[in-house]
């Protein structure tokens, strides 16, 4: 159970503690932040509201700890990460319980998130050993006008202190996808978890604590992003920010100093369906892509662009499947569970009302109870409707009928987002041309958008982000290049 057994140190009274200097601490603010259970809409947990002074101390410790961590052999760093991964997987049940209560993630998906996170940590340890163990050797006579008098040795070195800020929808997985690459590369890490999801993240951090990482190397400060966010992201002690979330990321990128930024932001992933597509496959992927975790995935299918000639048939198939989705409590492992907050539900309702006023066809009746919104397919959506462009981050999916592939590509590219997209056709040549024309970081052919497997590169164009994630890319991003040049008094050529 959360906050008990090996996790007992994390909780005191009814408030979870924050993690600094290898210890669980109460904030001197004496204030806490409530985490609301999306299902009951009552306070489920409380976390510390950390102060600016506490952030300053954490940054100091992170800087000191990083210096000796960078001198820890790579294989030893990997060993500790493997240990943390095993502990995380061993304690999947209490962590999954927190995910269910804090963010209403369906029970089975919650367990999957923790297991996937353990696997990500292990994979990162292995990948880090491989790619950080290698460097480059260059000789000067490959550049015009030079003799072989210079040997250049290149290796990857840590950046220093990494600030990690994940969003509510994967508070464990999107935290470890930043923590593990940072640590294997010799950095220290300060985590600011999302408020909804903070207790799951604190339990995850405790698994790293149990693995025995040095004091101060990992810290976790809690509090509302709106209150401590700016102080953290503009802190002079931070050498890199890895952020996943919404428009907040755009604001951070304008305020942050001259440091590397990894930003994974929103998306409006389009699903383009051609006349020759296997419509059963498309319908299954639209359900999985559009409605899993109630549409609260950056990679959710957020607009279907289907050729008019097959639209009736596709809408019928999807509608039949939507009717079979179960709606209710995450504890019962329902397909559709309450969205994360009342304000999120209100926002989704605003999009639905706008579509209604402008004449979209409702394939189901719109139904809401608190934060729970029943799955809704909107047909005949037109570009003047907000739902055609904005991401609901909820179980509402618009269908726009198109008369040409170009029209579909045009709609996709007119979006300010460019995260992922997908195209369904049996003609692989056409699929490649469409993929090349779509201005998105990834295009999936004959499957719904998805970030996983977690070692694949994951990136957004335009307002969807800066840089690329995925295990290898994140390790590389959290390092810089250092070169040492050996200058010889006379040219030297290897004779073999
Ligand atoms: N591309 C991707 O990989 C993903 C993108 N997203 C996008 O994220 C959005 C939903 O997630 P959500 O969690 O609501 O996103 P937010 O951008 O609201 O929050 C993300 C994180 O930022 C923190 N935060 C809030 N304000 C600040 C600030 N001023 N400075 C620093 N940090 C701050 C939040 O903390 P707190 O909770 O305390 O406010 C949270 O930890 C959607 O737009 C979605 O598309 C989501 C997942 C993945
Ligand atoms: O944050 C998100 O929504 C994810 O990055 C999506 O991950 P998934 O596609 O593997 O669910």
TrEMBL record:
Its EC number is 1.2.1.9. It is an enzyme of class 1 (oxidoreductase). Keywords: Oxidoreductase. The active site is at residue 264. It catalyses: D-glyceraldehyde 3-phosphate + NADP(+) + H2O = (2R)-3-phosphoglycerate + NADPH + 2 H(+). Transmembrane segments: none annotated. Residues 24-483 form the Aldehyde dehydrogenase domain. Pfam families: Aldedh. Belongs to the aldehyde dehydrogenase family. This is NADP-dependent glyceraldehyde-3-phosphate dehydrogenase. It comes from Hibiscus sabdariffa.
């Amino acid at each position: 159970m959360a906050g008990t057994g090996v996790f007992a140190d994390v909780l005191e009274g009814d408030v979870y503690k924050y993690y600094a200097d290898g210890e669980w601490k109460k904030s001197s603010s004496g204030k806490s932040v409530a985490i609301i259970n999306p299902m009951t809409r009552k306070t489920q947990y409380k976390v510390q509201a950390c102060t600016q002074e506490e952030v300053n101390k954490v940054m100091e410790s992170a800087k000191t700890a990083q210096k000796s961590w960078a001198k820890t052999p790579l294989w030893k760093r990997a060993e500790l990460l493997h240990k943390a991964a095993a502990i995380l997987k061993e304690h999947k049940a209490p962590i999954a319980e927190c995910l269910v209560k804090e963010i209403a993630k369906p029970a089975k998906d919650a367990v999957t998130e923790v297991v996937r996170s353990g696997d990500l940590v292990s994979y990162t340890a292995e990948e880090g050993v491989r790619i950080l163990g290698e460097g480059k050797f260059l000789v000067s006579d490959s550049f015009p006008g030079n003799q072989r008098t210079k040997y250049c040795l290149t290796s990857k070195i840590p950046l220093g202190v990494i600030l990690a800020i994940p969003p509510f929808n994967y508070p464990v997985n999107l935290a470890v996808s930043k923590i593990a690459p940072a640590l294997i590369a010799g950095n220290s890490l300060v985590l600011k978890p999302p408020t909804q999801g903070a207790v799951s993240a604190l339990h995850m951090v405790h698994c790293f604590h149990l693995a025995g990482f040095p004091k101060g190397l990992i810290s976790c400060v809690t509090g509302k992003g709106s209150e401590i966010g700016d102080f953290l992201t503009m802190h002079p002690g931070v050498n890199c920010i890895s952020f996943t979330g919404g428009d907040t990321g755009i604001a951070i990128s304008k305020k942050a100093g001259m440091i590397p930024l990894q930003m994974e932001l929103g998306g409006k992933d389009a699903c383009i369906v051609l006349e020759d597509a296997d419509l059963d496959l498309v319908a299954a992927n639209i359900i999985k892509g559009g409605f899993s975790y109630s549409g609260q995935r950056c990679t959710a299918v957020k607009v279907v662009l289907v050729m008019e000639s097959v639209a009736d048939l596709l809408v019928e198939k999807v509608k039949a499947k939507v009717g079979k989705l179960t709606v209710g409590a995450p504890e019962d492992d329902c397909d559709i569970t309450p969205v994360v907050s009342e304000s999120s539900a209100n926002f989704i309702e605003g999009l639905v009302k706008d579509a209604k006023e402008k004449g979209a066809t409702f394939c189901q009746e719109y139904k809401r109870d608190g934060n729970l919104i029943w799955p809704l397919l909107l047909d005949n959506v037109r570009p003047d409707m907000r739902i055609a462009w904005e991401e609901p981050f909820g179980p509402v999916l618009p269908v726009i009928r198109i008369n040409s592939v170009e029209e579909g590509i045009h709609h996709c590219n007119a979006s300010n987002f460019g995260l992922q997209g997908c195209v369904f056709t049996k003609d692989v040549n056409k699929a490649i041309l469409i993929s090349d024309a779509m201005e998105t970081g990834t295009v999936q052919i004959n499957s719904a958008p998805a970030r996983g497997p977690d070692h694949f590169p994951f990136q957004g164009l335009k307002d969807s982000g800066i840089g690329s994630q995925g295990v290898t890319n994140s390790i590389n991003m959290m390092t810089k290049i250092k070169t040492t040049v050996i200058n010889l008094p006379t040219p030297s050529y290897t004779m073999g």
